[in-house]
TrEMBL record:
Homodimer. Signal peptide: none annotated. The modification N6-(pyridoxal phosphate)lysine is found at residue 226. This is Kynureninase. The keyword Transmembrane does not apply. Its cofactor is pyridoxal 5'-phosphate. InterPro entries: Kynureninase, PyrdxlP-dep_Trfase, PyrdxlP-dep_Trfase_major, PyrdxlP-dep_Trfase_small. SUPFAM superfamilies: PLP-dependent transferases (SSF53383). One of its GO terms (biological process) is quinolinate biosynthetic process. It catalyses: L-kynurenine + H2O = anthranilate + L-alanine + H(+); 3-hydroxy-L-kynurenine + H2O = 3-hydroxyanthranilate + L-alanine + H(+). Catalyzes the cleavage of L-kynurenine (L-Kyn) and L-3-hydroxykynurenine (L-3OHKyn) into anthranilic acid (AA) and 3-hydroxyanthranilic acid (3-OHAA), respectively. It comes from the Bacteria.
Length: 415
């Protein structure tokens, strides 16, 4: 953004915003500026409607019959196809189930089983911790296996990929800085060395266009409670390219993944295709909330979404640096919007206190240790005026020293 706009220009940007009507589909408290959709998305009216119907009518009235009459049992596959459309996956390659952590564990085991002669997992030292915890757990179950990390064992992840590597586990967007990786290039690099790749899409699904098939990705995982607005603890998803379906083996062989789950056989026989990643009984009420949350996406042009995302984040950076640059904030995110997800991070020695002061003024972002203030921009319900007002409040907090109030230094149990 070459020049900092005034508020009249901001109003004009909102008036021209083709996604502006989408805001009315979401439930936002009056006066709240919500810049934390990259942690927990806002509830939609459709999600509440689906949840209410599933609870009061299907569970409340039809009870166990709803497994058949309401299609409960097939929901992970049906919703998987709907999520798949948003991540560039054709039908039958994505299933909604379990959590991101569990799905990482399943995908890592499946990938290593496809490369039995190899023993190394490669990942990022700066990864969201659960990815590394699960990778450590997989290594602990496989004699001779090892984990190599970017930033620890070599400066760049590409330097770690060789003929010993079975699988690369990588985040599409870094959870802290917002840096966006080149999916096609890194996937190609892994394949050149005979390795498979798993992409963590937690911070890009619903935030920007993704083309898993076009990039020739092997596996992907992600959550649905951030930009997809599925609700707290909403089920995650897992993708596997069709070419791997006949050989998928993963250790969590629960009854939902069985070829004949209602035959109640004594031994496990894997189902067909993506169903092999299913494990136990899924949380139906959460699935129904997600079903409603996905309704809005049938009307969203992902290219327009991405365009607005870049405009919002560019505007935020320009305004913060123009109005708050004298107060010690340092940009942690890439300045180039094409290399950035739908979030912006700034660092400051007192980031925690400043963020708490913002939250007290109804501007909600989040803090990531040790010194990152992170702001997520969900184009479906964040306006350009929200960005302007958030920066105005941030500047006031910094200028007046409001953040130095002792109450803002008290650490919350969940930060």
């Amino acid at each position: 953004m070459s020049a900092v706009p005034d508020f009249a220009a901001i109003e004009a940007m909102d008036a021209a915003d083709v996604l502006r009507p989408m805001r009315d589909r979401f439930i936002l408290p009056p006066g709240l500026i919500y810049l934390d959709g990259n942690s927990l998305g806002v509830a939609s009216t459709a999600a509440f409607d689906e949840l209410r119907k599933a609870a009061t009518e299907e569970w409340g009235q039809d009870l166990i019959r709803s497994w058949n009459t309401a299609g409960w049992f097939e929901m992970p596959l049906a919703l998987g196809d709907r999520v798949g459309r948003l991540i560039g996956a054709g039908a039958g390659q994505t299933v909604v189930c379990d959590t991101t952590s569990i799905n990482i564990y399943k995908a890592l085991h499946a990938a290593m089983a496809l490369r039995p002669e190899r023993s190394v997992i490669v990942s990022e030292g700066s990864s969201f911790p659960t990815d590394l915890y699960m990778a450590e757990g997989v290594v602990s179950t496989r004699p001779g296996a090892a984990l190599r990390l970017e930033g620890v064992d070599a400066p760049e992840i590409e330097d770690l990929i060789n003929s010993d590597v079975a699988v690369v586990l990588v985040n599409h967007v870094n959870y802290k800085s917002g840096e966006l990786r080149d999916m096609a290039a890194l996937t190609r690099k892994a394949h050149e060395h005979g390795a498979l790749i798993i992409w963590d899409l937690c911070h890009t699904a619903g935030a920007l266009p993704i083309d898993l098939e076009g990039a020739d990705v092997d596996f992907a995982v992600g959550c649905t409670y951030k930009y997809l607005n599925g609700g707290p603890g909403a089920p995650a998803f897992i993708y596997a390219a069709t070419r791997h379906h006949g050989d998928i083996r993963q250790p969590l062989s629960g009854w939902w993944g069985h070829a004949r789950p209602f035959a109640f056989e004594k031994h496990y026989a894997a189902g067909e295709g993506i169903r092999r990643f299913l494990c136990g009984t899924q949380p139906i009420l959460s699935l129904r909330a997600l079903k409603g949350a996905l309704d809005v996406w049938d009307e969203v042009d992902m290219t327009k979404l991405r365009e607005k995302s870049i405009r919002l984040t560019d505007l935020f950076i320009a305004l913060v640096e123009a109005k708050c640059g004298a107060y010690g904030l340092e940009l942690e995110s890439p300045r180039d919007g094409a290399r950035r997800g739908s979030q912006v991070s700034f660092s400051h020695p007192n980031s925690y206190e400043i963020m708490q002061a913002l939250i007290a003024r109804d501007v909600i972002g989040d803090f990531r240790a040790p010194s990152t203030m992170r702001f997520g921009f969900t184009p479906l319900y964040v306006s350009y005026a929200d960005v302007w007002q958030a920066v105005e409040i941030l500047e006031e907090i910094l200028r007046t020293g409001t953040w130095q109030d002792a109450r803002f230094a008290v650490r919350a149990a969940v930060t």
